[in-house]
Write a structure and sequence with these properties.
Chains A, B: This is Alkyl hydroperoxide reductase/ Thiol specific antioxidant/ Mal allergen. Chains A, B: GO terms for molecular function: antioxidant activity; oxidoreductase activity. Chains A, B: InterPro entries: AhpC/TSA, Nitroreductase, Nitroreductase-like, Nitroreductase/BluB, Thioredoxin-like_sf, Thioredoxin_domain. Chains A, B: It comes from Candidatus Bipolaricaulis anaerobius. 2 copies of one chain form a homodimer. The first copy, chain A, is of the alpha+beta class. Chain A folds into 2 domains: about 150 residues, Glutaredoxin; about 180 residues, NADH Oxidase, CATH 3.40.109. Chain A contains 11 helices and 14 strands. Chain A has a 5-stranded mixed beta sheet. In chain A, strands 8-9-13-12 form a 4-stranded antiparallel beta sheet, sandwiched between helices. In chain A, strand 4, helix 3 and strand 5 form a beta-alpha-beta unit. The longest helix of chain A is centred in the last third of the chain and has 18 residues. At the A-B interface, helix 5, helix 6, helix 7, strand 8 and strand 11 of A face helix 5, helix 6, helix 7, strand 8 and strand 11 of B.
Chain lengths: ~350, ~350
């Protein structure tokens, strides 16, 4: 991959272009579908025409995988319309190559260079092909899409691999990375968009004071280069009938997103409850009337040898969960697990 | 991509192999680092040797990106050790090709076929190369890793693209997909691993009864093919000092993961609070003493034209959030946003 190439893991640049079938097509309107974006120099060249026709021939299979195949060329709308007449392929006209340029699918001389991008249902690029053989290209894109769809139907790999690890290396974590974690958390939804979460990031001497307030069982968190305190107040969010106070639920959603972001960044983000809340509030200046619902211990993974025997066994052992049937039912609560005495 | 190839978006199969540097290397032990897995037939062939030496030459750059480069070949440990002596590259011996076979990096005749896999910090494959030119290969892997790392430092694309969309198509969602959403939610952590979340998935006639209990503002949710009720009870989770009841916080973390899973699957998962909790509890048989904290409306995205003017404007408008400085502070709570009167 040359330096000049598009980052094939990044967001797909948005665009709106006129379609040979009439009207315009915007990338954001296709969200929820997979999108194959195929940039090609011109329908008039036999090799490129063959390439586009190969996508046309496979269109029913792409459609059955909930994918839209979109060809983009600098040709005029009328040229593209003649070409697409029987095929049903979406062809968009990009006469000044502005979109091709946004995808870096142009030569230094400004001519379109053949490239294909596979965009997922969330609008993110997942695979790219630059130049390469025309023969078999559409088939390879289809096979890659099939693999992607199969992977996307499985449990998200970040959700799957996240664990409440305790062994930390003690390495520092950049301020920017800590801020990115909160940015991700802040994208959570909340009741009436109240955004009830308040984070205080403890580092340096303040962090030492927070560590002094940890319970004995959280000795491992003393190796953390940062701890995020998450506090809120009941009045910061909806208070609805039948016990539905939303502030802690909202903080939970934000923490869920934060943990996923941390896992992507190769960080542990372990929410704990074992600390003296008054001492931590005092150290961080959090108003006493707030609920300090969790401290989120941040760090890079380290050696399990730093842990107690009990914690080492948990760290290296399998994940423990109740069977799914204890927490989910269809249409009737029925036999869902209840603690004794409720 | 042939049908016989490894799914390059799936989890990287685990393995443990002896290293030419002594000891053994397990893939799970490398979690938290990027891993380049390079399968090659033999160090003795000039072309493959050149390939491996190219990785060796770039080792400092891979290391600076927090990546481990691991070469795997059927050669004996002593052959690999002689080859690796000056380079510092991790070379693993896979004499019966069992690991190569797990990665489908073998010919039908059982010989190793050159292939390289880029594994992310969570253990998921993100890119793969099969055969292809030796010249420039290591450089291309490095450039791809650099692009991946840059993307992983940004906000996760599923977190970024998730929105509380209201426009639903009305298309059905498979039972298996609904179950997958709850599976993802059930991987959330919780206080003392109490797993306080209880989901009831409403479909069919029961769904109609739930829809009858929605507030007027949630008219749009009547197009949903399924609604997940999430209920819990204070006694299902830790109740700690200073107002720290964890059950709703835990339900929030689970909902955070569920929304990410839904976004990956091209689904809307929109938690709402506007419903008559008693009527929904009755429809679903949820014990009256439980808190029915949210209904999560599930569906595929549809046309914004089905929405009220107000909701259409929200659906198509920018996302609204307080500035980050209103919800996060360094070391001191200080000026964080508080609602009036607290």
């Amino acid at each position: 991959m040359d330096e000049e190439r598009m980052n094939p893991f990044g967001p797909a640049p948005e665009f709106t272009l006129p379609s040979a079938a009439g009207g315009a097509v915007s990338l954001p309107d296709l969200a929820g579908s997979y999108v194959v974006l195929h940039f090609f120099p011109r329908t008039g060249t036999p090799a490129w025409a063959e390439d586009v026709r190969a996508f046309q021939a496979l269109l029913p299979e792409f459609t059955s995988l909930e994918a839209r195949v979109v060809g983009i060329a600098p040709d005029s709308l009328s040229t593209l319309a003649r070409f697409a007449a029987n095929g049903g392929l979406t062809l968009l006209s990009d006469p000044d190559c502005a979109v091709a340029r946004a995808y870096r699918a142009v030569t230094p001389e400004g001519r379109v260079q053949r490239a294909t991008f596979l965009v997922d249902r969330a609008g993110s690029m997942r695979w790219a092909w630059w130049r390469g053989k025309v023969a078999g290209h559409a088939e390879e894109v289809l096979a890659t899409l099939r693999a992607l769809q199969a992977a996307d139907e499985a449990v998200n790999p970040l959700i799957h691999s996240r664990r409440a690890y305790r062994a930390l290396s003690g390495e520092p974590v950049a301020r920017e990375a800590l801020q990115r974690l909160v940015e991700a958390a802040h994208l959570a939804p909340s009741c009436f968009n109240n955004q009830p979460w308040r984070f205080v990031i403890a580092q340096g001497e303040t962090l030492d004071r927070v560590k002094g307030a940890l319970s004995g069982g959280n000795y491992w968190a003393k190796r953390a280069p940062a701890i995020l305190a998450l506090a809120s107040h009941r009045d910061l969010d909806c208070k609805l009938s039948d016990g539905r106070d939303y502030f802690l639920f909202g903080c939970g959603m934000a923490t869920g997103l934060l943990m996923i972001q941390a896992t992507q960044m190769g960080l542990v983000a372990h929410p704990i409850a074992g600390y003296d809340p008054h001492a931590v509030k005092e150290a961080l200046g959090i108003p006493e009337e707030y609920v300090l619902i969790t401290l989120i211990v941040i760090g890079k993974r380290g050696e399990a040898s730093t842990l107690s025997d009990k914690h080492r066994a948990i760290e290296l052992g399998p994940r423990e969960r109740k069977p799914l049937s204890a927490v989910v039912a269809w249409n009737k609560f029925g036999d869902l697990y209840q603690t004794e005495g409720i």
